[in-house]
Amino acid sequence: MTFINKLLRDEQGATAIEYGLIAALIAVAAIVGMQALGTQLGNTFNGVSTTLENNQAQNG
């Protein structure tokens, strides 16, 4: 009976789960942010490439 009471009062498992959920949320936020940044960076490089190609065609 005392073993069951100890298990019911033990909060270490709940704390570990909370930390795991926080870590997962941070990971998801980081992935979303990196994807958005990657898209913007890709668009910037495509714009630079297009500008260079147009300048080369005009001057070449």
In round numbers, the mean pLDDT is 88
List the uncertain runs. none
Question: Secondary-structure element sequence?
Answer: HH
Span of the ends, CA to CA: 88 Å
Separate helix tally: 2
Beta-strand proportion? under 5%
- The gyration radius over C-alpha positions equals 26 Å
Q: What summary fits the major beta sheet?
A: none
Helix content: over 70%
Q: Let me know the number of strands.
A: 0
Number of domains: 1
Q: Indicate the structural class.
A: mainly alpha
Shape: rod-shaped
Short description:
This is Flp/Fap pilin component. The protein has 60 residues and is mainly α.
Task: Write up this protein.
By secondary structure, the protein is an all-alpha fold. The chain has one domain. Helix content is 93%, strand content 0%. The chain has 2 helices and no strands. The protein is rod-shaped, with a radius of gyration of 26 Å. The protein starts with a helix and ends with a helix. The relative contact order is 0.06. The mean pLDDT is 88. This is Flp/Fap pilin component. Pfam families: Flp_Fap. Keywords: Membrane, Transmembrane, Transmembrane helix.
